[in-house]
Amino acid sequence: MNYCFYVEHVVFVVFSHFLPKHPHPMTIEINDHNRQGLIASIQRYFQENMDEPIGNLAAGALLTFFMKELGPLVYNKAVVDVQNRLQARIAEIDLEVYEDEFQFWNKSGEKKKAK
């Protein structure tokens, strides 16, 4: 075994123990009602657009594939879109809550000097 590789491996193993753990791979879960609706939609698509229909199990497997393959892409895009919208809102917050300073004399009129 190459000594440099061994040392790097040991250092990685030791220090990776202290690094924050990445959560399990993201899974997008849908309830049974929505899953059945999506399966029916896939079956209808195949019926109307393909040469052969697709069965319930095959449509479910295709849905699972797309959820695992395409789901994270759509999810990540949605997260980026939300971040951009929130950043735009935060950038405008000063316009919504800004107050002019030193407005005592302007709001209450010029005070008369006490004699």
Question: What descriptive keywords fit this protein?
Answer:
mainly alpha, 67% helix, 115 residues, 0% strand, 6 helices, disordered N terminus
Please provide a written account of the structure:
This protein is mostly helical. It contains 6 helices and no strands. Helix 2 (32-49) packs across helix 3 (56-69). The protein is rod-shaped and about 80 Å long. Mean pLDDT is 81; it is low at 1-7.
Short description:
By secondary structure, the chain is an all-alpha fold. The chain contains 6 helices and no strands. The N terminus is likely disordered.
List the helices and strands and how they pair.
Layout: H1 3-16, H2 32-49, H3 56-69, H4 71-91, H5 93-97, H6 104-108
